[in-house]
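re: ur question from yesterday

yeah so i grabbed the chain u mentioned. its 227 aa long if i counted rite. heres the sequnce exactly as i have it in my notes:
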Amino acid sequence: GPFLSLSDFVNRRLQNPGNDPGGRPVTETGLKGALQAAIDRSGINSSFEELEPGRFNTYRTEANNPEAFFDLEAFSGSGGGTHIMSMAAGHLSQADLLQAIAPLLSARSDTFRIRFYGDTRAQSPNAPVQARAYGEAIVQRLPDYVDQTDAPGKRPYIGSNGMTQDDLQRIAPHPLQEGMTLDLHGPRYLGSPISGIRVDSNLSPVNTRFGRRFHIVSFRWLTEDEI
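ran it thru and got these structure tokens back, copy pasting raw so excuse formatting
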């Protein structure tokens, strides 16, 4: 994550398996969805993995195989084929989780309900409370930046060598953060050596600090009984 949509969360990403230009493995999201990746990492199906006869791995990509899959790794969700016990009773898969949580899933909302409390006391912090206040605000995050000199669609990061954010994300082993350095040794990528590339902000100083604008949609005072 973060995921661009529910489809991006559930399905594998359409990216080639293998290694990036620096020789590091491409993230497994190109082979399976996030839930399936978490299940595989947990080892919850390890008892099935220990069983024989093993895996479905007869479908290859050789040109002389009329039943070949274009990409066996993407078909099976792993580099070694699909285990023959996959989908057996008791074998947990992403489909099992989605069957339970799918009715509750929704794309992230940019509208938030914020409740707060405050009180006032006499001079001493240990003095009795003189008054209390409870409130509730509905706040919505807008696409616009705080400083509107930056267009809403402007990407927040850029490489110190001029690389776009999309290109940086293809080689970064972790989510981008300002100030991080991508030090990937290997062949050239898009005409630039992948070594010592610093991730810089592509936004104004105000937007680098505060990001998108928030709009207070509504506000109301609450009573103690409503908390």
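noticed a couple things. The helical segments are 6-10, 34-42, 46-49, 72-76, 94-101, 165-171, 205-210. also Residues 55-63, 185-192 have pLDDT under 50 and may be disordered.
anyway ttyl
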